């Protein structure tokens, strides 16, 4: 096995520290997305190749963040880079600003992989995809409220930035969670239209949905919460049956799980077809992207026509109220779609995805055995190419179960790993790529052992 030196753990990150101080002067909090921040300061990177990142202090890391899961082929895959460059060189431009053939080609491929998606619209992020999905559901049902599950994240949209990470003191009863707003600057009348449900508890969810069925346009969920807590099969099938009965649109947020748990997403694993699906991350091959697909009758509400153009002056422009508005200068960007199509082609090639899943399972097994050899209660949970490490003896079915986990011990391990050449934002999930090798796995397990010993020396203890 490849050894990891204890000396590496003393590595200094002076350049990152200085760069963060500079960033704080011109960027609020020093980062352009809150998720990128962690204590004492985030690490600034300058290069990425394959499974590796190199920071501004010239330290190399095995990367398990992979841009929060977007880079399933690793950094700078040559065929994806070539596809993007070829698109620009062949067409002589970066973007047309008009419809183009790749929009049709990608839509056909997505419909092939996700049969629940009968028609497709593109966006520039997963957050934008969720925004459109909700708007379509509200227009279709003529109802204003939506329901989302506690612990599930659906982007920075006011109506769903609720009960993502509530504290035990504010979360309310497990069977009927209290909506908790996760940001300042959100008008209360927007979150008044959000009902919070308990994940993986069908009985309690049914009670709440039946009580509010006449107000609810949609139920939205991550079929694998946070990308690592899977829905129970009976729960997700029961939810589908219930929403169909009550006339509530079922939205799957597969921004994290699309292509990562299966080519056809979590819905193909569970055998459930939602009414609307939102995709992102992997779909762009590293470029910003989102897509919304669903039943034709839902999607056609956004169909443009000459009499429903919000930008038309005079005439019948007042008819825009009959059309679900959806637009965006960069929607369906040709370079993004070229990179995305090449990503899908690579994942469809041979046995590549199965090898990725096998490597992920191998790393999970090795880590579980390592911690067990130290008599430390640890489990990995996840699906496909994504998982998380949880220090607990209890089963993890939903957000509240995570309260029982020893997160202080996990964070201490993660901080040590950053000094040992394993990159992951502390407490985040692991994402694997086709670029990760068995040698990477060996080095990762070795680093965990060094990190574990360093943490134990500092008198950290795991939960009993």
Comma- or semicolon-separated keywords:
18 strands; alpha/beta; four-stranded mixed sheet; 464 residues; Aspartate Aminotransferase, domain 2; seven-stranded mixed sheet; 13 helices; single chain; Aspartate Aminotransferase, domain 1
Task: Describe what you observe in this structure.
By secondary structure, the chain is of the alpha/beta class. The protein is 35% helix and 15% strand. A 7-stranded mixed sheet has the order 4-14-13-12-9-5-8, with helices on both faces. A 4-stranded mixed sheet has the order 1-2-3-17. Strands 15-16-18 form a 3-stranded antiparallel sheet, with helices on one face. A hairpin with a 4-residue loop joins strand 2 and strand 3. Helix 3 runs parallel beside helix 10 (334-348), helix 11 packs parallel to helix 13 and helix 12 crosses helix 13. The model is unreliable at 1-10 (pLDDT under 50).
Q: If you compute it from the alpha carbons, what radius of gyration comes out, rounded to the nearest whole angstrom? A: 23 Å
CATH architecture label name of the largest domain = 3-Layer(aba) Sandwich
Beta strand count: 18
**What is the number of helical segments per DSSP (H or I, 4+ residues)?**
13
Whole-number mean pLDDT: 94
Number of domains: 2
CATH fold group of the largest domain: Aspartate Aminotransferase, domain 2
């Amino acid at each position: 096995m490849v050894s990891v030196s204890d000396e590496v753990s003393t590595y200094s990150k002076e350049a990152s520290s200085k760069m963060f101080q500079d960033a704080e002067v011109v960027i609020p909090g020093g980062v352009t997305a809150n998720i990128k921040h962690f204590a004492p300061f985030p690490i600034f990177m300058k290069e990425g190749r394959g499974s590796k990142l190199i920071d501004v202090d010239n330290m190399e890391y095995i990367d398990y963040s992979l841009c929060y899961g977007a880079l399933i082929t690793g950094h700078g895959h040559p065929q994806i880079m070539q596809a993007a460059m070829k698109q620009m060189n062949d067409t002589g431009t970066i973007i047309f600003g008009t419809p183009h053939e790749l929009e049709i080609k990608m839509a056909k491929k997505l419909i092939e992989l996700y049969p629940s998606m009968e028609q497709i619209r593109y966006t520039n992020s997963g957050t934008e995809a969720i925004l459109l999905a909700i708007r379509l559901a509200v227009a279709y049902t003529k109802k204003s409220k939506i329901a989302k599950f506690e612990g599930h994240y659906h982007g920075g949209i006011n109506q769903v930035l609720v009960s993502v990470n509530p504290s035990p003191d504010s979360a309310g009863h497990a069977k009927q969670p209290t909506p908790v707003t996760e940001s300042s600057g959100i008008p209360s009348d927007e979150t008044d239209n959000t009902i919070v449900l308990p994940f993986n508890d069908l009985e309690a969810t049914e009670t709440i949905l039946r009580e509010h069925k006449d107000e609810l346009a949609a139920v939205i969920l991550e079929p694998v919460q946070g990308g690592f807590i899977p829905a129970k099969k009976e729960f997700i099938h029961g939810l589908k049956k219930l929403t169909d009965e009550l006339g509530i649109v079922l939205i799957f947020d597969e921004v994290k799980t699309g292509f990562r748990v299966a080519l056809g997403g979590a819905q193909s694993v569970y055998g459930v077809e939602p009414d609307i699906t939102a995709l992102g991350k992997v779909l762009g091959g590293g470029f910003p992207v989102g897509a919304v697909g669903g039943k034709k009758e839902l999607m056609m509400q956004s169909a443009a026509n000459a009499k429903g153009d919000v930008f038309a002056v005079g005439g019948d422009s007042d008819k825009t109220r009959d059309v679900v508005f959806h637009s965006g200068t960069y929607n369906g960007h040709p370079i993004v779609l070229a990179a995305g199509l090449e990503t899908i082609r690579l994942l469809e090639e041979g046995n590549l995805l199965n090898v990725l899943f096998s490597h992920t399972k191998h790393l999970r097994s090795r880590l579980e055995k390592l911690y067990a050899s130290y008599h430390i209660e640890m489990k990995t949970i996840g699906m496909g190419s994504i998982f998380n490490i949880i220090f607990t003896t209890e089963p993890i079915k939903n957000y509240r179960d995570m309260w029982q986990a020893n997160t202080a011990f996990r964070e201490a391990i993660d901080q040590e790993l950053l000094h040992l050449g394993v990159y992951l934002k502390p407490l985040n999930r692991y994402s694997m790529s086709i670029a990760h090798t068995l040698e990477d796995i060996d080095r990762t397990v070795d680093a965990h052992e060094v990190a574990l010993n360093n943490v134990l020396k500092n008198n950290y203890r795991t939960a009993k």
